[in-house]
Design a protein that fits this description.
alpha+beta, Arc Repressor Mutant, subunit A, Chorismate lyase, 2 domains, six-stranded antiparallel beta sheet, two-stranded antiparallel ribbon, 7 helices, 8 strands, 29% strand, globular, DNA-binding transcription factor activity, UTRA, Chorismate_lyase_/UTRA_dom_sf, DNA binding, Transcriptional regulator
Length: 235
């Protein structure tokens, strides 16, 4: 009888972390410990820890972004902007809908980490669970205004998609940057939209994309329910 091959250190650590994730000890959206903490906890090298994280990433249990870190994704699925939301949540058995709250022309009204001013095409969207109506995210997109956007104020987005609308007009991101922090207290208006208590702390992600010439394409601020999503920053 052939004996099963012994697990390597990285495989054993990955198995332990996987068990914690699947058992609920690490909730969906919870941050993993930093690499330094894992090195100390398991008394292994950083290389071994990174191999373990790579195993978990291949299984879709975590995502690692260069310079940011590793974190448990929603229901074990990677969720990014664009179609990634719908595909990931659908595969996890989550029924979700998107409601466009506003399409308007206005001046920049969001806190932007880099200089970005002038008139904007504003598109505000709410993603919520179909069964309960509870909000999962509130997203506010701002795109530097163009005359060709005027028709959108009456006709709406192409197929209900801002990504598709921008791409059809030659606005395709080539690079970008992202910031993450915690919004300590959710305001009354946003709380009502999301169906959450006032003063609830939220995860806030802000993303600016640019075209090949380095000009801004789109700035998006997303408020995410911290019970569902989490981000671990490594620095």
């Amino acid at each position: 009888m052939t004996k099963p091959a012994a697990q390597s250190k990285s495989e054993r650590i990955a198995s332990l972390l996987e068990a914690e994730i699947r058992s609920g000890q690490l909730q969906d959206g919870s941050a993993l410990s930093s690499e330094n903490c894992l090195v100390s906890r398991f008394a292994v090298s950083r290389t071994t820890v990174r191999k373990s994280l790579g195993i978990l990433a291949e299984k879709g249990l975590i995502r690692t972004k260069m310079g940011i870190g590793s974190f448990v994704t929603y229901a074990g699925n990677v969720i990014d902007s664009g179609p990634g939301w719908s595909l990931a949540l659908s595969s996890a058995g989550i029924r979700m809908e998107t409601r466009i709250l506003r399409i308007a022309r206005l001046g920049m009204d969001l806190e932007v980490p880099v200089p970005l001013a002038g008139e904007m095409l504003a598109v505000d969207r709410l993603r919520f669970r179909t069964e309960t109506g509870r909000g999962m995210s509130l997203e506010r997109a701002r795109v530097p205004w163009r005359a060709e956007f005027a028709a959108l104020l009456e006709d709406g987005l192409d197929g209900g998609s801002l990504n598709r609308t921008l791409a059809a007009r030659g606005l395709v991101p080539a690079s970008g940057e992202e910031w993450a922090n915690v919004l300590p207290s959710l305001g009354a208006e946003d709380a009502a939209l999301l169906g959450l208590p006032e003063a609830t702390p939220m995860l806030r992600l802000r993303r600016l994309t640019r075209d090949t010439a380095g000009q801004p394409v789109e700035f998006v601020e997303s408020l995410l329910d911290p019970e569902l999503f989490g981000l671990h920053m490594r620095f």
